[in-house]
Amino acid sequence: MSKLMFDYTKSILERVSFDAILFCKELEKAIRSLLPYEMEQLREWLLNFIIEKPELKQSLLIVKL
Fold it and tell me: What is the rounded CA–CA span in Å between residue 15 and residue 19?
């Protein structure tokens, strides 16, 4: 089930990536629901994802990289 939650989280974040504020809100929700090892996966995914979207760089502060 956790793989499904992680994939669901990524799909939501991809859909709301047009708005940095909404992206950060959804990221905060995801942090509350993901397991610790999933958080590591999310950090890695986030680093790769924001390369193409520098306006989302502020979201790195939320995941405390």
Answer: 9
Taking the model in full, what pTM does it have?
0.86
Give start and end residues of each alpha helix (H) in the chain. Answer: 2-15, 20-33, 36-49
DSSP 1: -
The answer to whether 12 and 23 are in contact (CB under 8 A) is no
Token pair 């890695």 in the structure block, residue = 44
CB 20 within 8 A of CB 56: yes
Positions in the chain short of pLDDT 50: 1
CA pair distance 30, 9, nearest whole angstrom: 6
